[in-house]
Automatic annotation (TrEMBL), chain A:
Keywords: 2Fe-2S, Iron, Iron-sulfur, Membrane, Metal-binding, Oxidoreductase, Transmembrane, Transmembrane helix. It comes from Candidatus Sulfuritelmatomonas gaucii. The lineage of its organism: Bacteria, Pseudomonadati, Acidobacteriota, Terriglobia, Terriglobales. The keyword Oxidoreductase applies. This is (2Fe-2S)-binding domain-containing protein. The keyword Aminoacyl-tRNA synthetase does not apply. Pfam families: Fer2 (PF00111), Fer2_2 (PF01799). The chain crosses the membrane at residues 22-41.
UniProtKB/TrEMBL annotation, chain B:
The keyword Cell membrane does not apply. GO terms for molecular function: iron ion binding; xanthine dehydrogenase activity. InterPro entries: Ald_Oxase/Xan_DH_a/b (IPR000674), Ald_Oxase/Xan_DH_a/b_sf (IPR036856), Ald_Oxase/xanthine_DH-like (IPR016208), AldOxase/xan_DH_MoCoBD1 (IPR008274), AldOxase/xan_DH_MoCoBD2 (IPR046867), AldOxase/xan_DH_Mopterin-bd_sf (IPR037165). Residues 40-153 form the Aldehyde oxidase/xanthine dehydrogenase a/b hammerhead domain. This is Xanthine dehydrogenase. It holds the Pfam family MoCoBD_1. Residues 1-21, 163-189 are annotated as: Disordered. Its EC number is 1.17.1.4. It comes from Candidatus Sulfuritelmatomonas gaucii. It comes from the Bacteria. Keywords: Molybdenum, Oxidoreductase.
């Protein structure tokens, strides 16, 4: 269902979402015997606009994308399961680890904790959109390549986008400053020393670019 | 956070050091084949896959620590629109018996964990799974399921179950008894109870020491204690900690033409294939396992996890693909945890600090399923790292109704360092000798012995240069200079810590497999998983070096068993770098041999008259030969052993299958590592830390850290540095705050998310820690490389503990982790204020 300008402004949907459905959708499970706590996903194949969903337009990686979203839907869910941008990872789904970090208007944010309908008319950048259209890697991506930064890589997208966001605002950080800048991201491989080496190298490359 | 490093810091940066002298590839940094996919988001982990018509399933986990399920009411749940099936324990196949590497049948243990259960053994034990069109329907259905539980007795604390009349975690026992070597069958569960007299010292904070199933000794213990200038008797508790891989163990499965295709993260691609077949009770040839990227594995995903077969079974039942996503909380429950150990050591020291006698007793909490022997393993490392002249170890592994345990990086090794290093520090202070001296005098050297006497002799290490690592590390850390600085400034007190650490670092008997294609490329088939250590690629640098080929013409196939991967080691206990570089070297040697044979068959003469260099095989001294591309084509013409119609007769059946799958693709070469060795491989570390404690608040910071290793040949410096400092930080987490906490009344874990049990962040550690390694080749492996990931964990933990004792005294804590509350309360009271023995506080 196309959105109206009023709906776009207020975020109202044409169908009511009950509190129960919201809770089911966002925090899930929670019953005495259910430990299901991920947000809930629907099959990409079976999925179709269902009651409570509405068609909105998003600006993701420089492209305008039309997508049906539920009111309680998080940006991470939309990116991963409706747009196929699986470079955005879910490590905790509760703003604890930062693996889902994306740039929203160039500011790093946890996409697991941002409702999709709130980012209409804002610019969303995921790891898939960081390189130039010609495929040239962003200096921070290239720096990670050069320094063999990170280990398992599951936290990598979030770290890189956090660093890019921080470096855009603080182009010449010291090592401790940059560490603070990406301290909202967890690496369970605990490879922080090498990550910081790579990100500092990225800062230098950005400065030279 | 302190920005501790200054331009004046004299320690050489890793980039300033040169490793791999005389080598083209070994010891040099390079870009691994997976990096581009990772930095661009194209790397696909299990949850990133989709399949046509895919359903989703969700788990229902036990809310109670122990119960028997009388009945499950699923009628209302099945009526929820979109719900397709419910899987219970009754649908789970009985696991098949397996065979070990020697072909011996290993009976499936009756206590073994299964994917779903009718007798949940811990809060979080999976009971059933619901499959539906989407997860909303799964959640709706789960709310409508009613389960009749018959509550059963339970116990959390390993010491409580050992008390006279103490509760057993299950009806048939509470302690694991490991039958005697050699070839031990699976451990057996038995009931073990100690006496009231055994518990007499409990209230004084000393570990009770009753009868145990596992013990060994060597030397004259009584004489050692009799001659000792100092005897210390210390009890210490190491924490249980969740593995907390950042990627939860999501799995997706589908069937095609009778074959199962299964995606999930693992630490060991090839070895997980056989586990899937065993759990599904189906032929291994009918399983395809895909795991190109694994989001962390620290022992908890050694062969992925038992729950991975749930979507496979649902998919089989429903005829469509099924994805089982695992949430962070679910991962906490089913994602495995490190075994906590209570240890008591009585150590007799000579006046120079030499350990004359050591009596060690440990109780390991195995959790709810598989037996874990961290305490027992720790004894081996104690005997190796500190070379006591006489030693006895006694150990017991206890089952409890807590999360299932699985060895986390450096099981036993971490316990060894955590128990021993604070004692060494205390002894040095009492004996008034230097902290480095007491470690140097006890350090192992060369082919150092370890463990008990077996058939009249003790085991020995392949090599050990730990003393050199200790000395060089101390120099780089400027230990002596730091000891001369003022310790106290206002409310801030600085402390210096040093710790030795070690762990197994190798294995033997695995296979290498490569193809030289008609295009002249060298393709290595890797059964190693890609979990971030880079060994999946690094080990083949050895083969490329041996063949003298540039890395640019090498390709690596990994992560998908349908692409014909060879029999490879379990990536556990830091054995991969050693074990698979040996296999890699073996297949390179075999390849050179086959190339020479092909040349002789083509150009005449004897294979010995030919040599391999510059991507060619040619007659020595110049003359006729073939390029690799020509050899690849010629191999196909020759057939037989050359193109994969025949496999090397010594390789594992899994490798033979892989060879058959590659037949006709070029020169297909397989080989088994049969290099001789008579010692056991270990890697060693000397770790140094400086902390600053605010005695007014109890808060402390790690100011600086350095690790110096004896790890054999350095293969890939960047990856090595990542392993050393990453695993050091994992260990520091055990010192600073990581632990499991249970509600003792309900048996419910209360630390089950990152924010309740947070791994260290980038702000918790110095922002420029340092590492280095001796780069001395191991003499009992052709490449000289040993594994490295394990020992820095114990080193990181123990260096912080000894630094804390240096700053605030040894009487402040008797368990890890040590947090600000512990320090503050204990400093005010003048004694440790935490309960010395109670579990999960």
């Amino acid at each position: 269902m196309p959105e109206t300008s009023e709906q776009a402004r207020t975020g109202e949907t044409s169908r009511k979402v009950t509190r129960r459905k919201f809770i089911l959708g966002v925090i899930a499970g929670g019953g005495a015997i259910a430990a299901a706590s991920y947000k809930l996903i629907t099959s990409a194949v079976h999925w179709q606009a269902s009651p409570g969903e509405r068609l909105i337009t998003l600006d993701v990686n420089g492209m305008r994308r039309r997508v049906d979203v539920m009111r309680q839907e998080t940006l991470a869910w939309t990116l991963r399961y409706k747009m196929g941008l699986t470079g955005t990872k879910l490590g905790c789904d509760r703003a604890e680890c930062g693996a889902c970090t994306v740039l929203i208007d160039d500011i790093p944010q946890y996409s697991c904790s941002v409702l999709t309908h709130t980012v209409r008319s804002r610019k969303v950048t995921t790891i898939e959109g960081l390189a130039s259209p010609d495929g040239k890697l962003h200096p921070v991506q290239q720096a990670v390549m050069d320094k063999q930064g990170f280990q398992c890589g599951f936290c990598m997208s979030g770290f890189i986008l956090s660093a890019v966001g921080f470096l855009n605002a603080h182009p010449h950080p010291g090592r401790a400053e940059l560490a603070r800048g990406v301290s909202g991201n967890l690496c369970r491989c605990q490879d922080y020393n090498k990550i910081l080496d790579a990100l500092m190298h990225g800062a230098e490359k950005m400065g030279r670019a | 956070m302190a920005d501790n490093r200054t331009p004046a810091d004299p320690r050489p940066k890793p980039s300033q050091r040169v490793y791999g002298k005389g080598h083209q590839l070994i010891g040099k940094d390079y870009q691994t084949a997976d990096m581009l996919a990772k930095v661009t988001g194209r790397a696909k982990y299990a949850e990133d896959f989709r399949a046509e018509g895919m359903l989703f399933c969700r788990l229902v986990l036990s809310p109670t620590p122990h119960a028997r399920i009388r009945r499950i009411h699923t009628g209302a749940a099945m009526a929820v629109p979109g719900v397709k099936a419910i899987l219970t324990a009754d649908d789970i196949p009985v696991p098949a018996d397996s065979r070990d590497d020697n072909g011996n049948v290993v009976k499936a243990s009756k206590w073994r964990e299964r994917a779903l259960t009718n007798e949940p053994m811990y809060v979080g034990d999976p009971i059933l799974a619901v499959a539906a069109l989407d997860e909303l329907a799964c959640a709706e259905a789960i709310e409508k399921i009613e389960i009749d539980f018959e509550p059963l007795p339970w116990v959390l604390d390993p010491l409580e179950t050992l008390r006279p009349g103490g509760q057993n975690p299950r009806e048939d026992g509470n302690a694991w008894v490991s039958p005697a070597a050699p070839n031990p069958p699976s451990p057996q569960l038995r009931e073990v109870k100690w006496t009231e007299a055994d518990f007499a010292e409990y209230n004084s904070g000393r570990l009770p020491m009753g009868n145990v199933p596992d013990q060994w000794s060597y030397g004259n213990l009584d004489e050692g204690f009799k001659n000792a200038a100092l005897i210390l008797d210390e009890t210490f508790v190491t924490p249980d900690t969740s593995h907390q891989c950042l990627e939860p163990r999501t799995a997706m499965a589908y069937w095609q033409n009778g074959k199962l295709f299964l995606h999930t993260g693992t630490q060991s691609t090839g070895q997980t294939l056989s586990l899937i077949a065993q759990l599904m009770n189906m032929p291994q040839e009918d399983v395809v396992f895909i795991s190109e990227y694994t989001g962390g594995g620290f022992g908890g995903k050694v062969r992925a996890g038992v729950t991975m077969i749930i979507p496979a079974l649902l998919s089989k039942k429903l005829g469509v693909p099924v994805m089982m996503r695992i949430s962070r909380e679910e991962e906490h429950f089913i994602g495995r945890a490190r075994t906590g150990v209570v240890g008591r050591l009585k150590v007799g020291f000579a006046a120079d600090g030499r350990i004359l006698a050591l009596d060690m007793f440990t109780v390991s909490n195995s959790g709810s399923y598989d037996a874990q022997f961290d305490g027992l393993w720790a004894a081996k490392f104690v005997s190796l790292l500190y070379q006591p002249r006489a030693m006895r170890q006694r150990a017991i592994s206890v089952m409890t109704n807590t999360l299932p345990r699985m060895p986390q990086t450096s099981p036993g090794g971490l316990v060894c360092s955590a128990l021993m290093e604070p004692i060494l520090s205390k002894a040095a202070r009492r004996l008034r000798i230097d902290q480095l001296s007491i470690r140097r005098v006890n350090c192992p050297e060369g082919k150092a012995e370890f463990g008990p006497l077996v058939k009249g002799r003790r085991g020995h290490a392949t090599s050990c240069f730990l003393r050199e690592a200790l000395d060089r590390g101390a120099d780089q850390f400027r230990w002596n200079e730091r000891t001369e600085r003022a310790k106290r400034s206002g409310t801030k007190v600085r402390g210096l810590g040093v710790a030795l650490a070690g762990h197994d670092g190798g294995d033997t008997g695995y296979d290498g497999l490569l193809v030289i294609t008609p295009q002249g490329r060298v393709r290595f088939q890797s059964g190693i998983a890609n979990l971030g250590t880079e060994s999946v690629f690094d080990v083949f640098r050895a083969a490329a070096e041996k063949l003298g080929v540039p890395w640019e013409i090498c390709d690596i196939t990994w992560g998908d068993t349908s692409k014909h991967l060879p029999y490879s080691c379990l990536s556990v206990g830091s054995r991969t770098m050693n074990a698979m570089s040996r296999a890699s070297w073996a297949v390179a040697e075999e390849c050179a041999l086959r190339l020479k044979e092909i040349a002789a068959k083509t150009h005449g003469g004897d294979p010995a008259e030919y040599q391999v260099a510059n991507q060619r095989v040619f007659r020595k001294g110049g003359g006729a030969g073939l390029s690799f591309a020509e050899a690849g084509k010629r191999a196909i013409e020759l057939g037989g052993i050359y193109d994969g119609h025949e496999a090397n007769p010594y390789v594992n059946p899994q490798t033979r299958l892989a060879v058959a799958g590659l037949t006709g693709q070029g020169l297909v070469v397989s080989a088994k590592d049969k290099y001789p060795c008579d010692g056991d491989w270990f890697s060693y570390f000397a770790c140094f830390a400086e902390v600053e404690v605010d005695i007014e608040t109890g808060k402390y910071f790690i100011i600086d850290y350095q690790a110096y290793g004896d790890v054999g040949t350095v293969m890939h410096p960047a990856a090595l540095g990542g392993q050393i400092l990453g695993r050091s930080t994992l260990g520091m987490g055990h010192a600073i705050g990581q632990k499991m906490v249970y509600d003792a009344h309900y048996g419910v874990p209360v630390a089950k998310r990152f924010y309740q049990n947070k791994p260290l962040s980038i702000l918790d550690i110095p922002n420029d820690m340092q590492w280095d390694a001796l780069d001395i080749p191991d003499p009992e492996t052709p490449v000289g490389a040993r594994g490295v990931g394990e020992p820095p964990v114990g080193g990181g933990l123990a260096a912080i503990l000894t630094a804390l004792t240096d700053a605030i005294g040894a009487e402040v804590f008797s368990r890890a982790p040590v947090n600000a509350d512990t320090i503050l309360a204990s400093l005010e009271a003048g004694r440790p204020m935490q309960h010395p023995l109670m579990a999960f506080i």
